[in-house]
Amino acid sequence: MGIIKKRFDAVVVGSGAGGSAAAWRLSSQGLRVLVLEAGPKFDPNRDYKLDQPDWERHMFPDLPGSRGLFTIDTLDPLDPKEQELRSWGRASGIRVRGPRREPNGPAYWHVQGIGGSTLHFAGESHRMHPKAMQLQSKYGAGHDWPVTYADLEPYYTTCEQLVGVAGPANQGARWRSKPYPLPPHPLSTPAQRLVAAGKELGMNWQANSRAALSKPYDGRPACNYCANCTRGCPLGDKGSADVTYIPKGLSSGQVTLKSKCPVVRIFPESNGRIKAINYLENGQLQLVETPILIMAAGVVQTPRLLLTNKHLSHPDGLANSSGQVGRNLMETLFWSSTGFLPGLNNSHMGLPTDAICWDFNAPDSIPDTVGGCRFISAAQEIGFTGPIAYAARAIGGFGHKLKQAVRDSFGSAISVSAIGEFIPNDGTFVDLDPQETDGFGIPLPRLHSHLEPGEIKRLRFMARKSRRLLQEAGVEHLVEEYGAWDFFSTTHTFGTCRMGEDPTTSVIDANCRSHDHPNLYITDASIFPSSGGGESPSLTIQALATRAADVIAGGKPLRPSVPS
Ligand SMILES: Cc1cc2nc3c(=O)[nH]c(=O)nc-3n(C[C@H](O)[C@H](O)[C@H](O)COP(=O)(O)OP(=O)(O)OC[C@H]3O[C@@H](n4cnc5c(N)ncnc54)[C@H](O)[C@@H]3O)c2cc1C
Ligand code: SF4
Question: Which class would CATH give 2-44+76-554?
Fold first, then answer.
């Protein structure tokens, strides 16, 4: 085993949204940081395929080590009465034909690599609704956050400035101490139609706040509206961590970054402090001591690492005296409806998710259930950007008729997607698979999922509103719908190491520090106590991570903002 002699002030595990933001902030305060990333480094020019003739056949690329391993337990049976929430496509027919829910694609696909899942995120950049952070005390459901919106506000602002977020001034309940650094993006053709249809229905649609540059910013170019952010942005205007926090951290000279170096063991001392970790480099085990350990390996791998590291002093795993590590997983409660709109052109171009409606986002805005949702314009986001999607998903058939139909309809897809609150329940969690292990004999994480009636109610609301909007926009026949009733999905996923004030019911405190280990911090999406009503998570992860870094470096966070 190699022993790393160089001394670091902190080791960060994972270089995604939370790990990269923590590392940058620590380095900006003079700390020496080692970032260990399990996945490879992607090269946009070499690896992303948007300039190739067969671009549509490539989703975000796979490189050796860029997919994490996991298993999924048996999913919920489907209630045959719930036909209105079935996923279907005009070409594919009913998507889930068996009696149970099925994983949507790989179910948990968060790229492992320098930048983590921001590499293939769409780039929505959202602040939490202040009320969604007080779910238990205000609405009697889920859990409260131990920090408030005001605590996070200065960090939201810092992160938005660093990333170069483009968005509109009016953000409703999300008051701001500073405007966005960049103006909002122009709306694509389907988004314009949804704004107009929403107005007829009394719904307020607006430009979405996006981690994509509407103007050149900080040495990066403006977006070219190629519409394919989730395949990897070749231009570098999308605010993924590899082009924002990571280069900033590296340029400080304080960050050492290693790819293809998974952390496998964590060693605590008898007093609870973490002393050292083991990671693998070129198949060799390396040992590095650290005064501070920051876990940011994501919602699945962070609990897995904590649970697999059992010691005599911590027989249930690290940071787990509450028994909450792995619990409170929140999956993606999503819905999507699509139709063709005669006369609509160019809906395959533009910035994905460019328009949003927040009207139903507060926790009390959907009748008879706690938890909100949001709606977006989604034709580009869900992949109606090339002819294969039209032919294979929404048209079907073959020969001359198919070709003609693709010609006639191409560029006329209009879609509404919604994401809603997922209230944690006892059946949705991550544990260790009792049988399956990786190449080193370490148990794989196992995902469990269950939908409660409240989730079904919210889904029904989301589906009905989406259909109504498309109808108002002029769509006569839908061509595809899919959602979380029959598909288990985790694009936006939270929980498994919840933050909270009470050490018996949570894993970390308000400053992201473990209740059990004074020098162990967690700064990824696993720490969210609640999911919010559809807010995208990366900006909040980064705000929490930079705030934790300030506590580590200086003892206290920035003062909370006051509403202006
Ligand atoms: C298709 C898609 C679209 C999305 N769109 C949006 C969006 O528009 N806006 C938004 O805000 N969010 C979006 N998300 C969600 C968002 O990308 C994630 O929630 C967020 O990036 C998670 O950050 P994280 O720090 O928790 O984890 P990750 O970004 O997943 O980072 C974890 C990192 O840890 C590494 N790691 C794991 N195990 C180890 C180990 N043992 N040792 C060392 N390293 C390890 C992983 O390789 C990974 O790089 C999207 C997600 C997907 C999949
Ligand atoms: S639409 Fe803009 S942000 Fe998205 S991949 Fe294309 S250039 Fe990048």
Answer: alpha beta
